[in-house]
């Protein structure tokens, strides 16, 4: 196996699949329920719809990645970085001028921040474990 390819371990696969499922589910709720959620959360329906729709390709990528036998290390960094960017975007929405989320909206945003940062950390742990296993197996082969 190439030095930049890793074999995702079961932990990393489970984390990626869970992230895919949560992303898809939240995407559906936000995209389909944007009008109803808008009043409850105090966030524009257009923001909820576009954010929800943006989660679909992310969910598809995560599911695809979790089902590959071997992937480039950089491919695992993509969801880690995207989760951190999503958290930063949520912080911007929370404090953006012109937006006035309700307390439910603030809670919704904070839950997203905590969730995506937890996924980023778990994916990073899974990547480190996969790299360790890859190094150990290449050492045994030498």
User: Pairing-aware structural class of the strands and helices?
Assistant: mainly alpha
Q: Largest sheet, order of strands side by side?
A: 1-2
Compute the CA-based radius of gyration. 18 Å
Distance between the termini: 13 Å
Order of helices and strands: EHHHEHH
| Range of strand content | under 5%
What's the number of structural domains?
1
State the total count of DSSP E strands.
Answer: 2
Account of the 3D structure:
The chain has 142 residues and is mainly α. It has one domain (7-141). The protein is built from 5 helices and 2 strands, in the order E-H-H-H-E-H-H. The protein has helices at residues 10-32, 34-41, 45-66, 73-95, 103-141, and strands at 5-6, 71-72. Helix 1 (10-32) runs antiparallel to helix 5 (103-141). The longest helix has 39 residues, at 103-141. It is elongated and about 55 Å long. The two termini are 13 Å apart.
Characteristics of this structure?
two-stranded antiparallel ribbon, mainly alpha, 142 residues
Give a short synopsis of this structure.
The protein is an all-alpha fold.
Task: List strands and helices in order, with pairings.
Elements (H helix, E strand, L loop, with lengths): L4 E2 L3 H23 L1 H8 L3 H22 L4 E2 H23 L7 H39 L1
Helix pairs in contact: 1-3, 1-5, 2-3, 4-5
């Amino acid at each position: 196996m190439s030095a930049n390819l890793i074999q995702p371990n079961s932990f990393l696969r489970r984390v990626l699949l869970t992230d895919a499922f949560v992303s898809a589910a939240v995407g559906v709720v936000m995209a389909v329920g944007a009008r109803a959620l808008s009043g409850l959360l105090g966030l524009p329906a257009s923001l909820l719809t576009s954010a929800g729709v943006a989660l679909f390709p992310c969910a598809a990528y995560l599911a695809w990645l979790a089902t590959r036998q071997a992937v480039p290390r950089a491919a695992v960094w993509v969801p880690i970085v995207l989760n951190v960017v999503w958290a930063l975007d949520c912080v911007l929405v929370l404090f953006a001028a012109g937006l006035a989320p309700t307390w439910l909206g603030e809670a919704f945003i904070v839950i997203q921040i905590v969730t995506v940062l937890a996924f980023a950390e778990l994916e990073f742990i899974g990547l480190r474990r996969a790299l360790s296993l890859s190094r150990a197996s290449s050492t045994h082969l030498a």
